[in-house]
From TrEMBL:
Domain of life per record: Eukaryota
Compositional bias annotation for Gly residues: 73-82
Lineage: Eukaryota, Sar, Stramenopiles, Ochrophyta, Bacillariophyta
InterPro entries: CCB2/CCB4
Region (Disordered): 41-82
Name of the molecule in the record: Uncharacterized protein
Pfam family, one: CCB2_CCB4
Amino acid sequence: MKTTPLLALAAIAGTELRLAHGFSGALVPQRHRLRAAPLALQSSNDNDDDNDETNAAPSSPRVKFRGIDASTTGGGSSGGDSFVGGNPLDRFLAVVASDSFSIASGAIGLLAVVVHRWNLVLAASDGSTAASIAAAEALTYQTRTDLLGVFAAGSVLLNGVTKLDVTTALAESVVLEGKALPSPESVGGASGERPGPEVAWGLESVLGATPARSAVLLGSDKDGGWVVLHRAGVVPPVPAPVPGKTPILDRVGSPGNTRETYLPTLQALPGRTELNYLPPNAQMAVMLPIAAGGEAQSENESESESGSGNSVLVLGGNAAKSFTPRDIAWSRIVAERIGESL
């Protein structure tokens, strides 16, 4: 069996150390201690490296750039907590990937292209010297280069703008004036009955799933006007009759209309007076058309119904511009369900 020099050296050093400890007062020769010391140091370093690799917690991703561990800092400490700390490469990459750097570099690039192009135009405008002639020729063959520079700088600028976290200021909510109904109620109309289960479910659903705080279902009467059929949420204490002139309501409730109308700020709306069936301080409103009788209604039944227009579901809120496209889409689906039950 062949023995490597390293194992032989270890055996000799171990034997001499045991002999030295076995005899009291015996001294180990200097040459043996010098020969055993490197082996002990090497073994200690190897054990320390193994312990470091074993105890290293993979709590954060480790990225290496050209042999440099991005999770270690320049001061010798390691760990995920110092990932952004002391390594200059980490700080440089963080700055380059930031949105402010993209915006600044894109703006500087666009400015450099514009200044360079403008200098060529000024130099070529003289036309008397050889330099102006060369500048005029440069305007021709550098056009594509300038366009590429504009596109590149513009892309970097747009990349930084798209990464900006812009939070819009939300309008303040108010306490609606009126009474809060515990459950949907019927006000008038052809039947005068309590709202059916599907109508009550629809009114309660839009109040619970959207920013709406008031829901009113209107229908057309025999004279071509509008009357409040059902309402829910916060409503005026005494139901007032709908005004005779209601251009907004007439446009939404016309038979051929299938699109809703969103009024984000009622306080600045001139036609605010026709929405007297909502609380006086309502901040926004959404009007959704409902087909009279739904798709299952026959022609004879539709002729016997009072009025020929659509019904309209009006939603009121306590904060301006509080409805999102998702809220409007959800309200439209509920309005279609209510129309099937009418």
